[in-house]
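ok, trying the design again with the full structure, not the truncated one.
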């Protein structure tokens, strides 16, 4: 389904993700009485800057970007176009040396991913939420003959952060993991529903 959106709208898989999040956050905040017409909303996005020939080597090369999400834009198609423009702007500005705005971090271990994000996120507070995409194996994985059906990632929450979204691609599917502060977002299911509706709109 994501490939269909990419073909119809252009852009990359990562653009589809950020555009979907933008529309969903707009809907969720609007339903909770927030004036979204002029809101400034930013996503903290970890990006691997390792080159193809460096894959498999020890250590990580990670850049942390802050992408402006067009939450104030009411039109879904225009939101998508603005996301594409923003991701291209960040790349052209030299803030990313990777092929995509969310990058390839498939060689990160859970420990290094969480500790690395924690250190870098602590140094940059000018964001509203974290959105991270971790590419996984494109083929099915088995343990003792049992096939792994799904894998839902978890992004840690930092100080003054209410919501984090992590994605994991596996065996042709993209799995979304949501983590929220219960006091700030007790109705996380509404965010999930907004994500589904926004993706259907783009599709």
């Amino acid at each position: 389904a994501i490939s269909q959106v990419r073909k119809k709208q252009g852009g990359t898989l990562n653009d589809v993700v950020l555009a979907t999040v933008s529309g969903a956050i707009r809907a969720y905040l609007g339903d909770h009485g927030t004036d979204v017409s002029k809101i400034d909303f930013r996503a903290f996005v970890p990006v691997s800057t390792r080159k193809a020939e460096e894959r498999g080597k020890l250590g990580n090369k990670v850049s942390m970007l802050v992408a402006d999400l067009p939450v104030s834009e009411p039109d879904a198609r225009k939101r998508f176009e603005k996301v594409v423009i923003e991701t291209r702007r960040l790349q052209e500005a030299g803030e990313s040396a990777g092929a995509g705005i969310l990058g390839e971090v498939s060689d990160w271990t859970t420990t290094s991913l969480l500790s690395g994000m924690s250190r870098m996120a602590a140094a940059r507070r000018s964001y509203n939420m974290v959105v991270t995409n971790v590419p996984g194996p494109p083929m099915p994985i088995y343990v003792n003959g049992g096939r792994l059906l799904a894998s839902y990632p978890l992004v840690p929450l930092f100080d003054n952060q209410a919501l984090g979204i992590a994605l994991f691609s596996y065996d042709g599917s993209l799995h979304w993991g949501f983590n929220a502060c219960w006091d700030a977002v007790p109705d996380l299911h509404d965010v999930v529903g907004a994500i589904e509706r926004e993706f259907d709109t783009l599709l």
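Keeping the full-length input from now on. The two ends are 7 Å apart (CA to CA).
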